[in-house]
Specification:
With 64 residues, the protein is α+β, with helices and mostly antiparallel strands. The chain has one domain. Helix content is 14%, strand content 33%. The chain has one helix at 55-63; strands at 4-10, 13-21, 42-46. A 3-stranded mixed β-sheet has the order 1-2-3, with no helix packed on it. The longest helix has 9 residues, at 55-63. It is elongated.
Length: 64
């Protein structure tokens, strides 16, 4: 999966954002093995990242 990279113009200046979506880390469980290589200062995770039913695994992934 190739991450998307966007430069956003705002009244405060430019902002670089890395965008990832539809990771589906819940099937099969991949919360602990999926690594995201930083490509921008800010990361946005959109839609279907995982499931809150995997409470501890999902939160551990988000904290990393």
């Amino acid at each position: 999966m190739q991450p998307h990279f966007a430069r956003i113009e705002s009244p405060f200046g430019q902002m670089a954002v890395q965008i990832l979506s539809d990771l589906h880390l819940e099937a099969p469980k991949a919360y602990d093995i999926f690594d995201i290589a930083p490509k921008a200062p800010d990361l946005t995770l959109l839609g279907d990242t995982g499931t809150i039913n995997h409470n501890d695994d999902y939160l551990s992934f988000l904290i990393r």
